[in-house]
Each structure stands twice: as C-alpha cells, then as structure tokens.
Amino acid sequence: YNSGSGSVMWFRKGLRIHDNPALEYAVKDSNRVYPVFVIDPHYMEPDHNAFSPGSARAGVNRIRFLLESLSDLDSSLRKMGSKLLVMKGEPSEVLIHCLKMWGINKLCFEYDTDPYYQALDNKVKKYASTAGIEVFSPVSHTLFEPAEIIEKNGGRPPTTYQAFLKLAGKPSWASSPLTIKLSSLPPVGNVEENEISTVPTLEELGYVNVGQDDMSPFRGGETEALKRMKESLHNKEWVASFEKPKGDPSAFLKPATTVLSPYLKFGCLSSRYFYQCIQDVYNNVKKHTSPPVSLAGQLLWREFFYTAAFGTPNFDQMKDNRICKQLRKWGWMHHLARHCVACFLTRGDLFVHWEKGRDVFERLLIDSDWAINNGNWLWLSCSSFFYQYNRIYSPVSFGKKYDPEGKFIRHFLPVLKDMPKEFIYEPWTAPLSIQKGAKCIIGKDYPKPVVSHDSASKDCKRKLAEAYALNQKLNGAVTEDDLKSLR
Ligand code: FAD
C-alpha cells in the first residue's frame, strides 16, 4: 500500500498545468502524485439568506467559473495519466488528514499572499514540519516576490506605482524560458474512495433554480484562458498601442480590454507566461506603449497592489491601516466603469464607506481578488494612493461621453430599453408622455434618483477639502482661519 515517494500537489489558485513550478516539483522524483483540491463549504455552498445567488463569500458566477476551471484541470490531468482528487471540509484539516493517510514525503502548493491563505498555510506547514514532510511553496502567482520588493524598499511597500517600477526592474525569471507543458504525471496512489469525489456540478453543490439568463458569458479554465490570451495577443498592433484609460468602457459584446482578470485571479493563466507573451509581441514591433498605460503596465498594476497589500497590515480596512487616510478626519482621499461606481458610492456622491462597496465587489466579481479589489477601492475613495478628490465622475456625462446611445444601459437595464437616447442617462427628466411611451414610469418602474449629483458632489468635495486641510493643519501648514474659509 502506498510505497515509494509520494507527493501532494495542493491546488488552490494556480489552476493550470503550464508554468506551474509547484506541480513540476511535486512530479520530480516521485512515484505517486496526489493532485488535491479541497472544497471549503463556506466558500462554495449556497447561502440562501444572501442578497443574490451564491455562497456567503462568492456570487454564483464566480463559483461556476471555479467549477469550470476545476473540470478543465481534471480533464488535463486525466490526459496526463492522473486526475483531480476533490475533497470537502476545512482545507487545513483535510490536508493534514491526507498527509497522514497517504504516507507523503513532499507537499507542494503555490505561495499565496492573501491573509486567508497565509493563516491556512501556516497551520499546514507547522504539521508538515513536525511530521518531517518537505514543503515546497514557490511564488508563481505574481511576476515578482512581494517580500523581496518590500525588503529592497527598507521593509515598507512602495506606495506609488513609479516607485514600485523602479524597485521592481525586470523579473528575475524572465532571462530563462518558463516550463510551458508537462507531458505526464506519475499515477495517483491508493486513496479512500469514499472521501474523494469528482468535480461537482452547481446542482450537486446545492444550487437550484439558478437562472441561465443572468449568467456571466465568461467560461472558466486553463484551456479557455490560453485561447483567450492568444486571441487577445493575435493583433500585434492592438497590443502595441494598448493605452488605458483610452478605450470604450461601455463596450460589452466586444470588451475594450482582454477580460483575462478572472483567469489571472484563479491562476488558470500564469501572469508570468502572459507577461512573456506580451514581451514577445513588443520585441516584434517598432514601437509600443509603456507603463502605466500599456498592457504590460496593467499587469504591473496587479503587482503593485499585491506588493502594497502584502506589506500593509489591515490593508482591507480603514482602521489600523497605516497607509489609509481617514476620509472624514484626514482627508485625501481615485478602471473606468468600476471607477465611476466606486467614486459615486464613496467620495463622489453618496459618501458611503469604501469597505461597503468593496464587500459587494468582493462577493460579486468573478475576478474578485483580495489585493487588487482592496487596492482599487482605497485608490478610488482617495483613502490611499490617489488624492485628487476634485476629480469626480458624473454619472450622467460619463456615460454620454462613451455611449451616447445608451447601449450598455439598455442591455443591462431592460426596463430602460425604450427610453429615447436624450433621456437615457436622466430618465427622471423625461416628460410623463415619453415615460409612458417607453413603458417606464419613474418612481414606479424605475427608482427616482437617490441623490442630486450637483449638490452631493459639491458637498463631498467640501468635506474632503476640510479633511485635507485638517490634515495639513495637523502637519502645521494651515491655520484655523484657512479652515473656516472652506466652510
Ligand atoms: P486588462 O486591461 O486587459 O489588463 C490585463 C490584466 O492586468 C488584468 O486582467 C488584471 O489582472 C491586471 N489589471 C488591469 N488593471 C488593473 C488594476 N487597476 N489594478 C490591478 N490589476 C490590474 N481587478 C481584479 O482583477 N480583481 C478585482 O477584484 C478588482 N477590483 C477592482 C475594484 C475597483 C473599485 C476598481 C476601480 C478596479 C478593480 N480591479 C480589479 C481592476 C481592474 O478594473 C480589472 O483588473 C480590469 O478591469 C480587468 O479587466 P481586463 O482583464 O480586461 O484588464
């Protein structure tokens, strides 16, 4: 029973075969490899009390994306003589149980900087060390090692993108080729069949009556990720001239950007491989855009937020977060549709705490990513990184600029589909006869405005100016009279 050297490859993110150093190491010199994925019921099983279908922590679209990614991984593993062992329970307990049961010598998993995984991994590593099991946990989710960048910066994460770029330089792995394809895997050893399952369906997890109409059009998995990346990079001119924020944020049938974020989030696509392929395009064109606006520059934004998040205790909250300026008290407080929503909720109009918006994004986005989501909410609310609180998106003119016909709104809010374009961004200004003609009576079929943008945004700016000045005062640069003149 289970003789010879055995290793566990613990999949969490990094749901891929290409550029997967943990998997490569698990395969090396092992005659049994157990590829494991643990379903944490809290993350995966339906929460019937939630405000929209999904679990307590993730919307149903992201859960489906994850299941599709697992099925794709399982089918790739099967082609290589192995399979994915799906287990259920609290992940560290399940893992430790597996290590005990299967006579394991080596445990391999991708390093994860998220606090949830740091805590989980510490428990598992502690057991492995007492049991004399070798642990290999390489950094391969990001281009750089956040800890190294922080160390280079004297122990603190850089708080500006330019400072990050200077510290980061070129990734060290970029000089040698990445392992893109493992051809085969050793067989899985004996396992207790009753503890193992195959990848469940949504229904098997308890999701019933999930409407197909509201489902995200993006399919999960490495196969889809690589296909999507190739399609995105096929047009070299497009890649070379990519410039964000230029591009139409209201385009949804053919989005203006790659939509690779959910694949990068779950590691169906290696960010390193993506980066390398972008560099290959750059090497074959005469000129190309540069960070922060270029496509490679977008990936570096990801790195920037991962580094800031890893080096900042309490990064996901206002309190006890040393890089976060308090909205009301201190002051300052900036991708386009997300920008617009985040700005509107926080410092632009409603003056609602960014953590509330973050929570909604965290649950509903399929690319929901701890470092990036928190980092961007901190940015947009002017709580950290960005302080130009005077730059506020207008919910009316922003839409008109990119999408004068209102195609985006008509698609996602069918109640407004027959509203004439003159009124599509301000339907409450349409005469009643027009509202009737469009079968959309404001106050009945569609809500009245929750706020008047002009006055609310002025109010927000004033509050932020006060907070900004108070901060200056605390630093000794502004007098009480200056403060009064702001009121
Ligand atoms: P592309 O423009 O094609 O860029 C390629 C890749 O670069 C992306 O897939 C992504 O991995 C990375 N990237 C691009 N923009 C950013 C950015 N501003 N910060 C960090 N990485 C970036 N992105 C997430 O992946 N997960 C989140 O949870 C998330 N939450 C956000 C919350 C708010 C309030 C805002 C304003 C932005 C958020 N973003 C988040 C960043 C950004 O909006 C998305 O990464 C981007 O829209 C994904 O689309 P794409 O793959 O087509 O991007």
What are the SSEs and their pairings?
Blueprint (H helix, E strand, L loop, with lengths): L5 E6 L9 H7 L4 E8 L1 H4 L15 H20 L5 E4 L2 H11 L4 E3 L6 H16 L3 E3 L9 H7 L8 H8 L53 H13 L1 H6 L19 H5 L5 H13 L11 H16 L25 H13 L5 H11 L5 H11 L16 H6 L4 H6 L19 H6 L15 H22 L5 H7 L1
The structure holds flavin-adenine dinucleotide.
Flavin-adenine dinucleotide binds next to helix 10, helix 12, helix 13 and helix 15.
Name a few traits of the molecule.
487 residues; mainly alpha; 5-stranded parallel β-sheet; 5 strands; 5% strand; globular; binds flavin-adenine dinucleotide; deoxyribodipyrimidine photo-lyase activity; Cryptochr/Photolyase_FAD-bd; FAD; Rossmann-like_a/b/a_fold; Cryptochrome/DNA photolyase, FAD-binding domain
Strand fraction? under 5%
Please outline the major beta sheet: 5 strands, parallel
| Strand element count | 5
- Point out poorly predicted stretches: 327-334
Number of contiguous helices? 20
N to C succession of SSEs: EHEHHEHEHEHHHHHHHHHHHHHHH
Bound molecules: flavin-adenine dinucleotide
Percent helix among the residues?
40-55%
Question: Which strands sit side by side, in order, in the main sheet?
Answer: 3-2-1-4-5
The Rg value, from CA coordinates, equals 25 Å
Distance linking N and C termini? 78 Å
Q: In one word, what is the shape?
A: globular
Average the pLDDT over all residues and give the rounded result: 90
The structure class reads mainly alpha
